[in-house]
Amino acid sequence: QVLEDLRGNAAAADMLRVGFDDGFHWVHGRLVRLLAETSAPAEALAAAERARARAFADVLADRQIAPVVDQSHAVAPAEVSRTLGHPVVAYWTDDEGVLIWVVAPDGRVTLRTVAVSASRLGDLVARTWSAREPAPRAGRATAPQQLYDLLVRPVRQAWPAGPAARVAIVPHGPLFRLSFAGLMDERGRYLVE
DSSP letters of the chain? Predict the structure, then answer.
């Protein structure tokens, strides 16, 4: 809230406000990490959602679309999960790795942390789009299998089971370019299966 107040007083020009947020983007990320590391998973997720809302408003401002960011009316992932009747899995990526939240329809929040460098994560995602990615072979994990191990396996226990199971996924950073349905488990089954 302090950042939003400062941003509102920074200047009337949208470009200066965007520059202000760019300069303090790390504050949002540090807050998310700090809350995650202090066993406050629901609060960390709320901070991540506020950061997403601000980033989205900045994108709209860049396109000269007047955004109205009123975070008091933002829909929380727990409310989305309850309404949909299935879990919401939200990701946050940064230089330290990936934070993964699973929000159950009953409001329970599970958080897992995965240590992976930003460059490795970006490389694995890019490889899923490459026609030169090798086919699965015994003893050698493909990019979709490695990403499954990094992004799904840590929270798989919190997901529903069965052929009709559904999960809503909220990506972040390089994960916006990833087809989660194409991730592959150790048996060679795609996540969509």
Answer: -HHHHHHHHH-S-HHHHHHHHHHHHHHHHHHHHHHHHTT-HHHHHHHHHHHHHHHHHHHHHHTT------GGGPPPHHHHHHHHTS-EEEEEEETTEEEEEEE-TTS-EEEEEE---HHHHHHHHHHHT-TTPPPPBTTB--HHHHHHHHHTGGGGGGS--STT---EEE--GGGGG--GGG-B-TTS-BTT-
Residue numbers of the chain with a pLDDT score lower than 70: 1-24, 56-75, 133-139
Expressed in angstroms, the distance from the first to the final Cα of the chain is: 42
How does pLDDT run across 151-163, given as a tens digit for each residue?
999 999 988 877 7
pTM over 0.70: yes
